[in-house]
Amino acid sequence: MEDLEIKGESGVFYIPTVHLNASTGECEISGESYLEDTDEFYNTIIKWIEQYVQEVKNAITFNFRLTYFNTSSSRGILDVLRALKKFEDDGGSVTINWYYPDDDDSIAEEAEDYMKSTGLEINMFSFEPED
Amino acid sequence: MSKEVTKEFNFFEYHDQINQENIILSYKGPITAMLIAELSRDIRAEIQHHRKASKKVFSIFMELAQNVLYYSSEINLFGDKNRVGTIFIVNEDERYKVIVGNMVKNTITSDLKERCHKIKELGRSELRAYKRELRDQPYHNDESSEAGIGLVQAALTADSFEMKIIEMSNEYSFFVLFLTVQK
Fold first, then answer.
1. pLDDT of amino acid B78
2. What is the longest distance spanned by two Cα atoms in chain B?
């Protein structure tokens, strides 16, 4: 199974950087998310997870390190988390780490809200954003 | 929109107003996804002093501008028939003010009023629960629930949230949101 790599950019839209590693199960999404086609972007990630669950089935660690995302993206993120929850419910080992910028309470709150919505355990860590 | 002009438009008064240094953004016209990204960069460049507040202003602008993009009932008849809206961001002593207006059909104003009153009345944790409720629903192209989550997010981010609806004709009203962020 192949890795999924998306190079983030802050051009016309704000595209997050994505690294999904099929051999180590280490996954990360970082940066900012305001996209032209939000559904397509997050569906690509969800399809990768579904393939990983089918073919690899090893432990997966998903790191979120986003500094901004709009509400459409927040729906996409919820669907990513639901795909991971399904893997966990089916016996998969899932670790979710949520890194939030220390100057933005709303991104920390989002993690709490996602825990409530999905029933997943999410580890929260603050970090100092660079700019 | 054909409405009788009741007061003569004073260009100089208007120009004086929008030419004040404390106007961070003043825009009326067609809104596109690309324009939102462009304006968002200007906003970031303009307000860097109050880091937390500027992130909030940025985020409120993004949600409300996207609301206009999807739900304004005023359509630009030229080019790509983009939706039209009005956006102001004002830098006051203690706070930033974000004002966003767009035309809506009179048929949805009572729903909008009700939704805005609900948002205003809910406490923070109830508002978060309401946002989860809207977000947890399976995606559907229902205008009001899609617009709702953006409004709730903007209200969660702001320190105050006010709404006004002014009837413009038998068919349309002007819907305006006033949100503030403390510095």
1. 66
2. 50
Tell me whether B39 touches chain A (CB under 8 Å): no
Q: Across the interface, do B128 and A117 touch by the CB < 8 Å criterion?
A: no
**What CATH number does residue B156 fall under?**
3.30.565.10
List, as one string, the DSSP characters of B51-113: HHHHHHHHHHHHHHHHHHHHH-S-B-SSTT--EEEEEEEEE-SSEEEEEEEEEEEGGGHHHHH
CB contact under 8 A, A34 and B62: yes
Q: Is the pLDDT of residue B21 over 80?
A: no
What is the pLDDT, as a whole number, of residue B10?
Answer: 82
Partners of residue B66 in chain A, C-beta under 8 Å = 70, 72
| Cα(B41)–Cα(B36) distance, integer angstroms | 9
At B30-81, the pLDDT tens digits run: 999 889 999 999 999 888 888 899 999 999 999 999 988 877 777 776 667 7
Q: Does residue B130 sit within a domain?
A: yes
Write the pLDDT tens digit of every residue in B107-161.
Answer: 989 988 999 999 999 999 999 999 999 998 876 555 555 668 899 999 999 999 9
Q: CB A113 to CB B58 under 8 A?
A: no
Is residue B3 domain-resident? no
All domains of chain A in start order, with CATH: 4-127 (3.30.750)
The alpha-carbon gap from B12 to the nearest alpha carbon of chain A, in Å, equals: 35
Range list of H helices, chain A: 38-55, 71-89, 105-118
Q: Is residue B147 assigned to a domain?
A: yes
Residue B2 lies in a domain: no
How many domains are contained in chain B? Answer: 1
